[in-house]
Backbone:
């Protein structure tokens, strides 16, 4: 191959990939752009990426009896303010943070000791327990949703934080992953800790946990991304109480309440919900890709 | 070596939760699928296989199977091939690979529900940017000629594009001719980056010397080395990518619930949405459980197929 054909094929590849990238990026571009623009600019698709940012007056605000000065603002300010005021977006975000962190913390609390026991302790029934873990890996979450919803409803737990968290407290995938990781930890390390008089309990949290940080980080990304983005389960168990909604469910409610013209505020809300994970991903790409493709092992 | 009874306290919580949260519900769903139970009433009757028979009897369930299977049949091959294609292009680049990789992976990370709402707006029949683009294209001579087949000598007015130019722009999510295709498009958009990353890892694992060996054996074109080396060496990755994409496609829910609610005329009425609609929204627990069991059956079937292929040693190493 000559230099010329090499150069030619490199350019062709870039053209194809750039075209693909343009389609992939399109909705992100529109989402951010619309979150800056005034309703008129959105309707007519004018104003480029940032919009003209001409001052606009919010009619709803005037109806509430406030002065014109108070109700006149830049479109970008209007959109983001409406997202935080009309939909309690901050509340949704805090709910999302609380639920995802609680889920991850409980998953680790339950999975780590179990994974340690399966990897490093010998006891009667160990193989049976491991077999149970492997079997449970086959069960898709959507298949247990309805019965769990029934159980929670019977216990009067729908529309509570508990309902959002309980079904995810057990992560058989986490147990499996950590067990595989603990298998690679040398026995000498554990025996030395035992010689020092450490209890099995403190071995788990003071010896095994620190060695497992890289695996745990990957699992954290996997778990947090899945539950921050999850829409199905919150939709099932949170039926009316807005104070408990997670970001995707809150956005969905915002959409169904809207009179159709308020795309700006809705896109602002969508941007705020999508942004944390996307920014974190762009900062730590390798770790994120590793963490999310972990589910591939399932 | 027995270390007191600490192992019991380590394992018991996990075993208990596995049983209550994962295994018991399957049995509960199995039992309820033979009843007419609904959440409002206090008792229920055993109705045998009636719920299962209903799946074949009513057109809405037949449409559900058609929609689900069509979705899987569209999304799986397209997103797998796009994933493989983009992985091969990216891995053969001299520079810029990381950039494309990051962009193509963005939809995997982003909250699907939020992005679905953006797509809905993008595909809106009147103010959506897709139809604006198509509409503008109608008055651009070469664009119109190209996409109507006019340059090949066909009558432009007979083509699909010529037709929407003279009549009216397609309603992507509101017309049953297009709705399932539009939802599938969003599914592909979201899924292929994940497959790309798995294929990139698979390509890294192909030994370099195999390509040299193939060249010695007379493989001249890129296509021949692909057929001889790349494709077969990716065997385990193929099995894995196809399995995971199929299972995920069966689980599509967010886009359906937010954009079409199964419509128009049940053309996008897919399984997990049907489960939610029957079991949760309409409180028809019996029917919802039946759908759950059938759904579980499909997913297990896919998994067993995967195990079968893995045991047949698709990897040649």
Residues:
């Amino acid at each position: 191959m000559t230099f010329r054909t090499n150069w030619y094929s490199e350019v062709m590849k870039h053209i194809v990939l750039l075209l693909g990238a343009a389609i992939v990026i399109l909705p992100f571009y529109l989402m951010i752009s619309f979150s800056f623009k005034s309703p008129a600019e959105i309707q007519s698709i004018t104003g480029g990426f940032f919009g003209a940012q001409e001052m606009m007056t919010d009619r709803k605000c005037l109806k509430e009896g406030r002065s014109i000065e108070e109700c006149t603002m830049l479109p970008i300010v209007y959109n983001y303010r409406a997202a935080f005021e009309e939909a309690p977006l901050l509340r949704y975000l805090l709910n999302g943070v609380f639920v995802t962190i609680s889920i991850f913390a409980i998953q680790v609390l339950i999975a780590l000791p179990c994974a340690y026991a399966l990897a490093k302790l010998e006891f009667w029934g160990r193989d049976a327990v491991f077999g149970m873990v492997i079997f449970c890996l086959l069960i898709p979450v959507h298949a247990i949703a309805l019965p769990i919803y029934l159980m929670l409803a019977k216990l009067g737990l729908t529309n509570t934080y508990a309902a959002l968290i309980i079904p995810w407290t057990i992560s058989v995938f986490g147990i499996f992953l950590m067990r595989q990781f603990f298998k690679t930890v040398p026995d000498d390390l554990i025996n030395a800790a035992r010689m020092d008089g450490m209890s099995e309990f403190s071995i788990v949290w003071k010896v095994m946990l620190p060695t497992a940080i890289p695996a745990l980080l990957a699992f954290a990304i996997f778990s947090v991304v899945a539950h921050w983005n999850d829409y199905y389960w919150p939709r099932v168990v949170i039926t009316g109480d807005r104070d408990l909604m997670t970001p995707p469910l809150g956005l969905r409610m915002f959409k169904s309440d809207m009179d159709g013209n308020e795309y700006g505020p809705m896109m602002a809300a969508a941007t705020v919900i999508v942004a944390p994970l996307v920014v974190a991903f762009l900062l730590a790409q390798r770790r994120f890709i590793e963490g999310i493709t972990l589910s591939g092992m399932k | 070596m027995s270390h007191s009874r600490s192992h019991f306290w380590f394992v018991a919580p996990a075993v208990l939760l596995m049983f209550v949260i994962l295994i018991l519900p399957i049995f509960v769903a199995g039992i309820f699928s033979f009843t007419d139970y609904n959440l409002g009433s206090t008792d229920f009757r055993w109705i045998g296989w009636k719920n299962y028979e209903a799946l074949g009897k009513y057109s809405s369930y037949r449409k559900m199977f058609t929609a689900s299977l069509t979705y899987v049949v569209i999304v799986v091959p397209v997103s797998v091939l796009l994933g493989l294609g983009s992985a091969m292009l990216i891995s053969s680049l001299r520079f810029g690979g990381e950039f494309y990789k990051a962009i193509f992976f963005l939809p995997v990370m982003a909250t699907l529900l939020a992005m679905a709402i953006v797509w809905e707006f993008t595909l809106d029949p009147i103010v959506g940017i897709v139809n604006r683009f198509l509409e503008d294209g109608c008055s651009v001579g070469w664009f119109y000629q190209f996409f109507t087949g006019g340059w090949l000598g066909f009558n432009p007015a007979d083509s699909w594009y010529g037709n929407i130019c003279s009549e009216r722009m397609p309603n992507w999510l509101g017309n049953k001719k297009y709705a399932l295709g539009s939802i599938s498009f969003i599914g592909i958009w979201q899924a292929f980056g994940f497959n790309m990353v798995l294929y990139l890892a698979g390509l890294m694992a192909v030994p370099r010397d195999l390509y040299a060996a193939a060249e010695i054996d007379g493989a001249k074109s890129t296509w021949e080395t692909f057929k001889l080396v790349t494709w077969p060496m990716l065997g385990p990755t193929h099995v894995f990518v196809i399995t995971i994409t199929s299972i995920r496609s069966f689980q599509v829910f967010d886009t359906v619930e937010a954009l079409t609610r199964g419509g128009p005329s049940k053309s996008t009425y897919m399984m997990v949405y049907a489960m939610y609609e029957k079991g949760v929204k309409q409180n028809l627990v019996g029917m919802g459980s039946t759908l759950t069991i059938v759904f579980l059956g499909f997913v297990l079937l896919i998994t067993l197929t995967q195990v079968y292929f893995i045991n047949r040693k698709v990897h040649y190493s």
Remarks:
- Chain B is about 70% helix and 0% strand.
- Residues 58-125+170-311 of chain B form a domain with the MetI-like fold fold (CATH 1.10.3720.10).
- Residues 18 and 24 of chain B are 9 Å apart (CA to CA).
- The first helix of chain B runs from residue 6 to 32.
